[in-house]
Amino acid sequence: MADEDTKLFDQCRICIVCSNDLPLETAEQLATVIGEYGGEPSIHESSPEKEDTLECTHIVANNTHFHTYDLARKTLIPVVKPSWVHNSLAKRKVANPRQHSPDPRLFLSDVVVTCGDIPEGDKDAIIGGVVAKGGLYSPRITGMVTHLVDLTVESDKARLVQAKKLRVKIVLPHWFDDCLKLGQRIDERPYTLPDPEILRPGLDAPIRSNENKDLAGASTPEPSIMPTPPSIPRTGDQSSVFAGKSIMLSRDLGIGSHMLESIEAVLKQGGATITSKVEDADWLICRFREGFVYRTASRLEKIVGNLAWLYHLMTFNTWTRPLTKLLHYPVSRTPIPGFEGLKISLSNYVGEARIYLENLVAAAGAECTKTLKQENTHLITAHGNSEKCSAAREWGLQVVNHLWLEDSYAAWKLQPVSNPRYNHFPPRTNLGDIAGQKMLDIDVLERNFFSTQAMEEPSSPPRAMRAKDQNTESMQPPAEKPRKETEKVSETAEGTPQAKTKTTRRAADNKQAQTPARSRLIPDDKENETPSSTSSRKSKDAAAARLHEIAPDIALYEKEMKRVGGVIYGGRRKSDEDRVSINLKKRRSAEPQEESDGEQASDAKRQKKSRPPISMHLLITGYQKWVGKGNEKKEDADKRHLRDLGIMVVQDARRCTHLAAPSILRTAKFVNALAYAPVIMSTDFVDNCLSQDELLDPKDFPLVDKTAESKFHMSLAKSLGNAKKNKNKLLRGFRVYCVEDIRGGYEAFKSIVEANGGECLLFRGRLALNNTSRREESDDEDEEMQDDEPGRNEAFLLSGAERKHARLWPRFRQLAGDVKRTPRIVRVDWLLDMAMSQELRAADEYELDESSIEDADE
Q1: Which of 50, 175, 489, 524 is the most exposed place for a label (fewest CB within 10 A)?
Q2: Which residues contact 570 (CB under 8 A, 6 or more apart)?
Q3: pLDDT beyond 60 at 781
Q4: What domains are defined for the chain?
């Protein structure tokens, strides 16, 4: 064995995740091989922890069900199937992880295709589509080829496959075309030569349907029968999926005490503990996407699933993420916007697939009808051959496949039925076979159901928080009696401010009787019980109240940590307008007031009604009146004044609709905002709005700075026009690396690159360069990258001319060559000039070499 071969995985720390498809014995064999070739393997029977995930360079898994998969995806750690290890050994170099990804979006990742006697145009389209969706192309027949695309079995390659009896499927080009149109891999049997079913006469014959194993235990969000798993390991056995987990069962599950005891017994038998405090729980099992406990658990990144998911784990004793199946995650009480009033019927779906779609229609907020009538709005069908399909088309109803429903549910947005993906029905294929493969997106869930933006902007809370909350839960154990004081604080934490004064117990009881929403929280048999006045009860009340009070601050703090500069340099002050709206209400409610509760509540209502809606989100940079020590109070007062005029001052360029600056600047705010093509005006606009106490027209205060335009070789008007055309995709396909201690800061340049659609990574010269970009992983079929696009085959390093930076240049050139990319070491002006002009510029005039070091040192 050559020395270079023994060091194949020399710089790799590889986590191997076991599952049903990757048993422990196979994992141990892989670990042995990886260790022999210089790697550092580690085996995890369920899922690697957060720390282990961040420390590894690759994760070997046969699926994406382990709970740190989202973390790996966000931190760009490749997740690969075991075939990646074998392929790397066969090639004697580390293989491209993208062709071995278990990500369901890359649905052709295990396909290696070669083409026979087909037209060149079709050949190029097939190769491009296969590679874009994770597959590989081979120009000739090899042992790795899985599919041969041909029109007949008389070609040379087809004869070779038949003569040597290779395990290669010979398929028509139509199979790839239909797979790419649907965005899903379908059964290739109807397209297989020599006798493809799609070319036989009698296409109207009944189409067979196969058992859909993906929907086992995932067809309903509210199972009525508890499974009786015979193989749940005993307590302390690490092979149990529940071992060592702390699980909270929410009160909104709506199950009886006997069933609850049975579930708890199974969980404890598997080694889990039951808790009633969300901060102590690893998993939260609940029914709805609402309530303080749900939002707190989600913001603290706990595992949140529903009863169906829990039963699935009990049945199979194998870990799977709740986000993997649409109905394994809690549902919403309110419908998807646009689904109200829709009447949907199903056709040609059978078995679990039909049950799954019926429940998904109900979860989306529409009505599912067993019969098709003219009053229906949609027909979801698995293929186009049925009486229902013919009748629906005659009546002018929308005829779509189930992908429309799944995509709408996952995006929580009504998808247009005009998308060809939703009305494509491949011949002789039952689409019920691929139902249930769509996954939920955590970013969509956060934006719609537990985003901290709801507290930052009380005037526009998320739709889920606007809904009336019916499963507010006290943080006390179920056995304890609910207390009015705790309920009062809990309701305040849910977003309903309450004026709290020192009142007598009689006044408090009267007020309690006048608040039906709060009285729902008291069990009927304990309605007249008086709260305990002992010191222990008071301390528990205070602790619960404190927890409710600080939970929003914790969530805001975690969000601020993600800002450029962190909490200290990039966060909000307590006096910021969008921050003060949360806690000032609580502080006021905690202090004695001379006014009565009713007077204060009415004053708050009048003040809220008098405030105008937000008409613009304004990003301000370089405003000298707010710069300098001692101007914080003026800045806070001005922001509140602007908000009273309908102007919300924001700090994030992604949220701004308008930008105000004294001149054209190269600040991070200005450069980032340009990518979003906002309305740009002078800070004179801010001065005049404040002095005249009215919202003025931004067009009367244009930003004119010819000096800066000449200096930066750009035109502001032209840059805005380019930005509108680019749509944040100027640097699409560019991979930009940045030295760690670059002047201006890595985070600032990272935000600029990502605002323009590129990818920015920190380069320390230690590990191999990542050969998979987020752009390549995109599942946007209308925007696939081409090999000749700028930046496609180049790797850029932002660097200074300092000697300490130059020490990294040879290593960068070497690593870029290893992944077959042209190395480009450039000054930061290259990035800034492109971002300012919104035009691509050649890197040649910005490149650094060894001669630049001498000039800098002199």
Answers
A1: 524
A2: 560, 563, 564, 651
A3: no
A4: 3-100 (3.40.50.10190), 112-200 (3.40.50.10190), 222-328 (3.40.50.10190), 343-440 (3.40.50.10190), 474-517+539-609 (no CATH), 612-709 (3.40.50.10190), 728-857 (3.40.50.10190)
User: Does residue 478 register a pLDDT over 50?
Assistant: no
Q: What percent of the chain has pLDDT over 70?
A: 75
Nearest by Cα to 426 from 106, 781, 180, 213: 180
Q: What tokens does 304 get?
A: 């949140």
Higher pLDDT, 485 or 359: 359
584 pLDDT band (50/70/90 cuts)? Answer: very low
Q: Which of 600, 606, 579, 590 is nearest to 488 (CA)?
A: 590
> Distance between alpha carbon 34 and the CA centroid of its chain, in Å?
32
Q: Which residues of 808-846 are buried (b: 16+ CB within 10 A; e: fewer)?
A: bbeebbebbeebebebbbbbbebbbbbbbbbeeeebeeb
Q: Are 661 and 703 in contact (CB under 8 A)?
A: yes
Poorest-pLDDT segment among 397-401, 452-456, 671-675, 681-685: 452-456
Q: Is 134 left (phi over 0), alpha (psi -120 to 50) or beta?
A: left
Q: Are 53 and 72 in contact (CB under 8 A)?
A: yes
- Dihedral over Cα of 551, 556, 562, 568: its sign: negative
- Supply the pLDDT for residue 828: 92
Residue from 629, 795, 773, 857 nearest 78 by CA: 773
Q: What is the pLDDT of residue 64?
A: 83
The DSSP 8-state label assigned to residue 682 in this structure reads E
* Whole-angstrom distance, CA of residue 820 vs CA of residue 647: 50
Residue 47: its pLDDT value, please? 75
Using the CB atoms, write b or e for 665-676: b if 16+ within 10 Å. bbebbbbbbbbb
> CA angle at residue 160 from 158 to 165, to 5 degrees?
95
**The pair of three-digit structure tokens given for residue 751, joined into one six-digit string:** 């935000």
Q: Is residue 342 classed as helix, strand or coil in its secondary structure?
A: coil
CA 338 to centroid of chain Cα atoms: 22
Q: How far is residue 9 CA from its own chain's centroid?
A: 31
Angle between helices 828-837 and 746-755 (to 10 degrees): 40
Closest among 531, 547, 542 to 473, alpha carbons compared: 547
Q: Which one, of 734, 743, 694, lies nearest residue 834 by Cα?
A: 734
Q: DSSP code of 446?
A: I
Beta strands in 38-194 (DSSP E): 40-44, 58-60, 79-80, 112-115, 136-137, 147-149, 169-171
Q: How far apart are the first and last CA of the chain?
A: 50
| Average pLDDT score, the chain | 78
Confidence (pLDDT) at 820: 82
Count Cα neighbours of 442 within 13 Å in the Cβ-side half-sphere: 20
More confident residue, 498 or 13: 13
Q: How many CB atoms lie within 10 A of CB 762?
A: 12
Residue 560 has pLDDT above 80, yes or no: no
Residue 595 has pLDDT above 50, yes or no: no
